[in-house]
């Protein structure tokens, strides 16, 4: 699926092949991308820049922001930068995914807390930062991608993300901002359905 020229897509995620698979089918002349990491690690910086280079090779304008996606100031600054660079954002893909498969009876609070912070608090911050700007711009689509982990914290975060989407649609849906929650494999279809 190639998007119309002028479409702006932002993505927050760890820069894995999963995110590459979301974005490269959308690339084309005139499509613009803004990519941000989940954390400031060299691994995510390298991986996200690799995706950006591939998008550039496909003819898409792009930029990368290294950030902590659980830092409210950093997420708000990324949203502002997208508007400063491109003037709007048509689609945000929030693909925060700190996955774990730890069994419930072995899951400690020290393991629980970072999973909830990454997989629930991170999407909350992105939803608020981008949703408010999309509301002022009279429309946009937000795609929240479920965590792939099976640990109780990942499952709980996925349920929480669904609640966030429902709250966002109640707040902004009649003003043109729609939020969808999807499994990773459904992201391209969700974007296709979301755009005119």
- Tell me which oligomeric state these chains represent: single chain
The CATH H-level superfamily is: NAD(P)-binding Rossmann-like Domain
In CATH terms, what is the architecture? 3-Layer(aba) Sandwich
Tell the overall outline.
globular
Radius of gyration: 16 Å
How many domains? Answer: 1
Question: Could you explain the architecture of this structure?
Answer:
There is one protein chain. The chain has helices spanning 17-23, 42-57, 72-86, 109-136, 152-172, 187-194; strands at residues 8-12, 32-36, 61-65, 91-94, 140-145, 177-182. By secondary structure, the chain is of the alpha/beta class. The protein has a 6-stranded parallel sheet with strand order 3-2-1-4-5-6, with helices on both faces. The protein is built from 6 helices and 6 strands. The protein has one domain (8-194): Rossmann fold (3-Layer(aba) Sandwich). The radius of gyration is 16 Å and the shape is globular. The chain starts with 7 loop residues before the first strand and ends with a helix.
Task: Give the structure's gist in a few sentences.
This protein has one domain: NAD(P)-binding Rossmann-like Domain (Rossmann fold), CATH 3.40.50.720. A six-stranded parallel beta sheet has the order 3-2-1-4-5-6, with helices on both faces.
């Amino acid at each position: 699926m190639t998007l119309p020229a002028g479409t702006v897509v932002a993505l927050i995620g760890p820069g894995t092949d999963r995110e590459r698979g979301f974005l490269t089918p959308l690339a084309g002349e005139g499509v613009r991308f803004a990519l941000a990491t989940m954390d400031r690690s060299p691994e995510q910086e390298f991986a996200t820049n690799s995706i950006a280079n591939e998008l550039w090779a496909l003819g898409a304008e792009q930029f990368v922001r290294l950030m902590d996606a659980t830092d409210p100031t950093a997420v708000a600054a990324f949203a502002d930068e997208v508007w400063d660079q491109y003037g709007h954002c048509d689609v945000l893909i929030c693909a925060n995914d700190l996955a774990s498969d730890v069994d419930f009876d072995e899951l400690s609070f020290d393991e629980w807390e970072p999973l909830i912070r990454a997989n629930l608090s991170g999407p909350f911050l992105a939803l608020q930062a981008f949703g408010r700007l999309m509301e002022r711009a009279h429309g946009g689509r937000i795609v929240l991608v479920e965590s792939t982990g099976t640990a109780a914290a990942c499952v709980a975060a996925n349920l929480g993300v669904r609640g966030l989407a429902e709250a966002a649609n109640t707040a902004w849906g009649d003003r043109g901002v729609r939020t969808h929650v999807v499994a990773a494999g459904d992201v391209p279809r969700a974007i296709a359905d979301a755009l005119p």
